Amino acid sequence: MNNESRSAYITLVLAVLHATAGLSILVISSWFIAISAIAPIGFNYVIPAVVIRGLALLRIASGYASMWVGHKDLLGRIAAVRMDVFSQLHNCQLDDKASSTEALAQHTEVLASKWIEWISPLSSVLFIFSVTCITALWTSLPGAIYLVILYCAWIILLTLQWLSALAIARENTEATSAFRRASSHFLAASSIWHLNSKKNVENAPSAAPVWQQQLQQKRKTIQTVWIFQGAAFVLTLLLMAGVLPLAEVAVFAPIALIVPMVLLAAPDWASASFNAVANAAQHQQSGNALDSLSTSPIRHLAEKPVLTSLQLTHFAAKGRSTVPVTVNLPAKGVVAINGASGCGKSSLLQAIAGLLPTTANGKRKVDGHALPEGLVKRWLYVEQDPIILSGSIQMNLDPAGCDISQKGMCELLSALGLDTLLPLTNWVGKSGRQLSGGERKRLALARAVLAEPIVLMVDEPFEGLDSKTQGLVCKLLEREAQSKLVIVASHVLPTALSIDKHVVLEEANVENIGLHKRQLA
Fold first, then answer.
1. Between 20 and 30 A from 279 (CA), which of 2, 53, 253, 507?
2. At a CB cut-off of 8 Å and minimum separation 6, what does 407 contact?
3. Per-residue pLDDT averaged across 133-141, rounded?
């Protein structure tokens, strides 16, 4: 048994011990209350009181120990599950934008938390309920048949809850994926929102279907808990009324109080199982989502410095509705790619970097030597909507742990006007939610610069920035362009940016269309 399995089983044992101690306190306390009313003179009250206190301490200790071991196990499992996902994505890229970093993080957390979210609570209730019923029947405890009836009702309700939770979890996963796709398309068109400003809010994707599915899951769980509680209450009334033969007991027998107390308390300690079933359903859906990840392989190429020029011939991303581009780019300096929204600026940058396959006759040459398809090492592409890790500023600037100088990080952040993000230990929130769009762009740009790229490609670096901040970004890009090729794709080009070569995609497209027609003639 490895350490990971050992921690999981210890968590389970502690959870069962915690539940057992709680139920034992209930049984002994109910008996103690009853016996105190009819106990003869000389009855020793100390022993049951000490037992109850000991069980209370055991319950508290096992509860805290279960949480400590369980969460320690959770952190290790999250790391293991995410490493497994990373291995699937090694040298690959996701085909579906709905499978974002946030979505993958959510799925891995659900998978990793299975022991504390549903295995432990469900196993605890199953074990305690089964042992209680068996013990009650074996000892002929008055009213034991009522515990068995409630146990059967619990199994039936649990099964129905599982089927319902599984269907809702499936619908919630589909609704979440649809919302992420719609949001991605909606935000990608942000540069042309001004053309349809009156209907922006109406056309914005809504998360209402996702919330409705989540609320429906909670309502179903609460409804099942109430039905179970109602069944327990009805059985208690029937027991006290002596409806079933085995319910006929001596009124003043203290042991007769145990079953009614267990019945009344059952919803408190058994209801956790219904939440556990809902978590188990979400666990299955997350597992299916990760098992069915759609990826495309990316071929990695060795470093290729640009000494004289980068030549693109009939170059375009495969499967994109753009006209091939033919252009020579210098080895150093700032190259600005401009054009209307949807003309293929982002696709062109990704194809140059090797993130997207190119058309059959498209060529990418460095100093006259053709490069095969693939991602060239240290040719870095900074995307329009960059990925921000749920961690500190330093973690986002040095995600690979390359021991980048903290002084260099701070200086670069200051150069980009990100002094407010310091110190480097500051937490950016889940997926960088505490950062504005402009801060996310500049943080991603700083991360790329610190990686010392050979070719730096930046997608829409000026969008959402004021003129002063645009000036800071321009100075950084110009500084980098003194030693390398910097390609900027943007529909916003500040006058402060010194451009060495300007490529307008519409003009390049017209030129290439004319060239293509002449070749056909």
1. 2
2. none
3. 88
Report domain extents, the chain.
Answer: 3-297, 300-520
| Cβ atoms within 10 Å, residue 381 | 23
Look up tokens 């690979």; give the residue.
Answer: 400
pTM for the predicted model, two decimal places: 0.64
In this predicted structure, which of 83-97, 121-135, 302-316 has the lowest mean pLDDT?
Answer: 83-97
Element (H, E) at 300: strand 300-301
Instruction: Specify the fold of 300-520.
Output: Rossmann fold (3.40.50)
* DSSP 8-state secondary structure symbol assigned to residue 143: T
> What CATH number was assigned to the domain covering residues 3-297?
1.20.1560.10
**Is the separation of the CB atoms in 398 and 450 below 8 Å?**
yes
3-state secondary structure 244-283: CHHHCCCCCCHHHHHHHHHHHHHHHHHCHHHHHHHHHHHH
Distance separating alpha carbons of residues 115 and 8, to the nearest angstrom: 6
Distance separating alpha carbons of residues 270 and 47, to the nearest angstrom: 29
Which tokens sit at 110?
A: 């659900």
Helices (H) and strands (E) in the chain, counts: 16, 13
- More confident: 44 or 119: 119
